[in-house]
Amino acid sequence: MTSSPVWLTHGQLDTSAASVATSRRGRRRPPANIGKDLGLVAKGSATWPGTREVTLTVRNRGRGLAIVTYCGDGLAERLSQRLWVNGRLVKGPTHCSFPPGAGYLDMGKRTRSEKTTTVRVRLETSIPEYLRRPGTLTVAVYDGDL
Fold first, then answer.
1. CA Rg, the chain, in Å?
2. What tens digit of pLDDT does each residue of 78-116 get?
3. Which of the four, 34, 36, 53, 110, has the lowest number of CB atoms within 10 Å?
4. Cα–Cα nearest to 143, from 74, 57, 72, 25
5. Does residue 100 have a cis bond before it (omega within 30 degrees)?
6. What's the pTM value of the predicted model, to 2 decimals?
7. 3-state secondary structure string across 66-100
């Protein structure tokens, strides 16, 4: 990555009904685009507490990378999340936000020497009651001009 990660707030992420799809189970899916320049290239979900982590690997096209994470089904703001990019812990919000995300993490333009980028998000809690509360973690990776 050629620049430091920047967390952009909810105002830059279009979460209108027209841009956010809903699955058959009523869960909100990540939007296909963020603005006009970023397109969805990978997405993954996990069901808490059985699975606590989502890992996605995307091909490097030499453009910008943005990451959206959110929790559903009553887990939002109750669980902490940790985010790694290419094995390096990246600072960002500590709580998993409400769908479809409180914003996105702008990772900047990627160098051509990196063939792929791996994004890993893990949920954690120190409150035992939350280990019995089911819910979902969704991670979406966007690629485009930042």
1. 15
2. 999 999 999 999 865 578 888 765 567 888 887 778 899
3. 36
4. 57
5. yes
6. 0.79
7. EEEEEEECCCCCCCEEEEEECCEEECCCCECCCCC
